Amino acid sequence: MWGVVTAGLRVSRPVLVARLLELEAAGALTTAHVRAGAQVGGVNVRTVWRWLDAARTEGRVERRPRARLELSDQAWEVLAQAGGNVAALHRHLKAAGGEVTSLATLHRAVRRDSEAGRVLPDRAVARRERDEQQTRHALADLALAGAREGGAAQSSAPPPQRLVPEAAEDFSVWERRASAGVALPAGAQLVRTASVRAVTEAVGQAMATAGAVCLFGDPGRGKTAAVRMALREVPPGWKATWVPVPVRPSVAGMRRAVFDALALAGRFPHRSALADAAVTGALSEARVLVVDEAQRLPVPCLEYLQSLWDHPGTRITLVLCGAGSERVLSRLPQLASRIGAWQEVPRLTGAEAASVVTGFHPLWRTVPAPDLMWIDRSCAHGTFRTWAALTAHLQNALLTTADASIDRALLRRLFKRVAPPL
Question: The pTM is what?
Answer without folding.
Answer: 0.56
